[in-house]
Design a protein that fits this description.
Layout lengths: L2 E7 L5 H11 L4 E4 L5 H12 L5 H22 L2 E5 L7 H12 L4 E4 L9 H6 L2 E3 L2 H11 L2
Parallel strand pairs: 1-2, 1-3, 3-4, 4-5
Helix pairs in contact: 2-3
Length: about 150
């Protein structure tokens, strides 16, 4: 049984590639999907499709609509969502994606460091599982196959 896993979280480093590599090393039959990780493409998609917008607010709104559409489609087709919270980057997209996944009744694993226990307590309480590392998240998924 293959599972599709949506990897929600910041797009500024290669954490998704690490998850994919570790899943492959564990021989887990997982397929991964994610938000657009090309930051420039994500920021400009509205204008790329709809044309030049009359200002930054409109540019952001157009891009947000299309990015949200993409996320909704991929998340609905996913079996599981892993939402990674880190300490370095602002986390509003991760929080939004985790909330959307929980609202869709998607099994959701939140990965967050211990320093974020308090700020994420309500979201963690609604998630299926909360862990501190991606290795732990993969162990949760590996347990499905036992």
């Amino acid at each position: 049984m293959d599972l599709t896993v949506y990897l929600a979280g910041q797009i500024h480093d290669n954490w998704r590639e690490i998850v994919k590599k570790k899943a492959k090393e564990k021989n887990l039959p997982l397929k991964f999907v994610a938000p657009q990780t090309n930051h420039e493409r994500s920021d400009n998609i509205g204008e790329d499709i709809l044309g030049k917008q009359p200002g930054d607010v409109y540019k952001d709104d157009a891009a947000s609509s299309i990015n949200n559409f993409r996320t909704q489609v991929l998340m609905q087709k996913s079996d599981v969502v892993i939402a990674l919270f880190g300490e370095k980057y602002k986390q509003w997209n991760t929080a939004m994606d985790a909330s959307a996944a929980i609202t869709m009744n998607k099994p959701t694993i939140i990965v967050r460091p211990s320093s974020l226990i308090h700020p994420l307590k309500e979201l963690s309480n609604k998630a299926s599982v909360t862990v501190e590392t991606v290795d732990q998240a993969l162990e949760v998924l590996a347990y499905i196959y036992e």
